[in-house]
Amino acid sequence: QVELVESGGGLVQAGGSLRLSCSASGRTFSSYSMGWFRQAPGKEREFVSAISWGGGSTYYADSVKGRFTISRDNAKNTLYLQMNSLKFEDTAVYYCSARLGPPVVPGPYDYWGQGTRVTVPS
Hints:
Layout: E1 4-7, E2 10-11, E3 18-24, E4 32-39, E5 46-51, E6 58-60, E7 68-73, E8 78-83, E9 92-100, E10 111-112, E11 116-119
Parallel strand pairs: 2-11
Antiparallel strand pairs: 1-3, 3-8, 4-5, 4-9, 5-6, 7-8, 9-10, 9-11
């Protein structure tokens, strides 16, 4: 079991950048595949990105490919999502997630953080 806490959300201008972080409390963080999901107002939660145990494999939704970069630092038990060229459509609550085993797109994932809100005004 692992506890996940997201941070780094906020209000960012269109075209700007933001880096989200997810701090994990688990003793075996490096054993988990990690993912980012988001939920926009009035919409269902959607897959954004995922990364394998060692960081060698990454996956992205078409909507963010080329703009977002997922990474992890297992020594710090931390997952990151670097978001560049942000647009209004990226406005959502972003959730960190984890699962044992390989990454799965779009899921399922077993553990979830509380979410951090990203707002990009139009």
